[in-house]
């Protein structure tokens, strides 16, 4: 409990720095923020009214204090472009993004960990070379290019999945999974490559340990030995999975754009195009919070894999 409290307190300076950077985003961007938001046809009077409405005519420290007070109270502001509360916009877009993230990581772990373990077990063989070739190719090809290739192959040439769009879970699990199949495969390939390589490296290292040789000498089967090795290699793999979850924040933006999924990634793209600073600031702040939370959960999970770890 003391460790958890210390870690939570340690996140406060991090989030404070993130809050300052996110707040200054509107002031660090080139040009007058009020003029950019108002558009090319706005008059000087319109720009001044907008600047006053946004509070940009007040001292910088006061703007930050008011903004931080609203954020801490749960008020993320109003979207300048749609005039809808940012919290409502995020709630509307959360399900598609969360669905992609959960299914992508589930697919990644289910494929990458066995694949990396197999490559470590058959190190130096053709199986190992093929797995590593796949990992290198999947990690090297851009996500958007893979997405377009998947669309061409599995929606145009072989019409198995829809081209674009998202079906809500409430409309049926089958239709929901069908709409997410290609986006999740597209996004998962990169993370499968990353975690496969990490799993192979860590399991190979563990397979050289004395206790593994002892287990083999006692006559344990291949699966028992590999399972024992995988448990001892779990901490670096869990760390890589945590990093992969955090990196999903950036990958989802590209994937949702390619497959026209109305998630938070698309919301960010639309907000950048319309200079909708309240939405951009809110998404960046929440993304940083999710990143910090995931790192904390990964650290806390280490004891599940190795009971000898003491916090």
Fill in the keyword field for this structure:
311 residues, 0% strand, single chain, 13 helices, MetI-like fold, mainly alpha
Can you tell me about this structure?
The chain has 311 residues and is mostly helical. 77% of the residues lie in helices and 0% in strands. The protein contains 13 helices and no strands. The protein folds into 2 domains: 2-72, no CATH class; 95-305, MetI-like fold (Orthogonal Bundle), CATH 1.10.3720. The model has no long low-confidence stretch (mean pLDDT 81).
The CATH top-level class label of the largest domain: Mainly Alpha
CATH superfamily of the largest domain: MetI-like
What's the helix-strand series? HHHHHHHHHHHHH
Low-confidence stretches: none
Q: What is the mean predicted local confidence, pLDDT?
A: 81
Count the strands?
Answer: 0
CATH architecture descriptor of the largest domain: Orthogonal Bundle
The fraction of residues assigned to DSSP E strands is under 5%
Question: Concise description?
Answer:
The protein is mostly helical.
Record the SSE blueprint.
Elements: H1 2-28, H2 33-38, H3 44-54, H4 60-72, H5 86-121, H6 126-140, H7 143-157, H8 173-207, H9 210-217, H10 222-232, H11 234-258, H12 264-273, H13 277-305
């Amino acid at each position: 409990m003391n460790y958890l409290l210390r870690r939570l307190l340690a996140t406060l300076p991090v989030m404070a720095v993130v809050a300052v950077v996110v707040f200054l985003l509107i002031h660090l961007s080139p040009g007058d923020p009020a003029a950019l938001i108002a558009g090319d046809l706005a008059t000087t009077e319109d720009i001044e009214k907008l600047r006053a409405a946004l509070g940009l005519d007040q001292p910088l420290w006061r703007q930050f204090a008011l903004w931080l007070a609203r954020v801490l109270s749960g008020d993320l502001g109003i979207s300048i472009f749609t005039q809808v509360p940012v919290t409502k916009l995020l709630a509307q877009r959360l399900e598609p993004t969360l669905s992609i993230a959960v299914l992508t990581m589930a697919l990644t772990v289910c494929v990458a960990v066995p694949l990396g373990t197999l490559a470590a077990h058959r190190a130096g063989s053709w199986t190992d070379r093929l797995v590593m070739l796949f990992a290198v190719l999947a990690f090297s090809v851009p996500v958007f290019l893979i997405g377009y290739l998947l669309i061409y192959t599995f929606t145009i040439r072989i019409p198995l999945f829809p081209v674009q769009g998202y079906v809500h879970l409430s409309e049926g699990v089958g239709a929901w999974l069908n709409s997410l199949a290609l986006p999740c495969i597209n996004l998962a390939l990169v993370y499968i490559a990353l975690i496969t390589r990490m799993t192979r490296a860590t399991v190979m290292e563990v397979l050289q340990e004395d206790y593994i040789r002892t287990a083999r000498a006692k006559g344990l089967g291949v699966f028992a030995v590999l399972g024992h090795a995988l448990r001892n290699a779990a901490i670096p793999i869990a760390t890589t999975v945590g990093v992969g979850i955090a990196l999903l924040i950036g990958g989802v933006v590209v994937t949702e754009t390619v497959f026209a999924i109305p998630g938070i990634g698309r919301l960010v793209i639309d907000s950048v195009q319309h200079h909708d600073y309240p939405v951009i600031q809110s998404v960046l702040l929440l993304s940083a919070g999710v990143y910090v939370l995931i790192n904390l959960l990964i650290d806390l999970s280490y004891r599940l894999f190795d009971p000898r770890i003491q916090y």
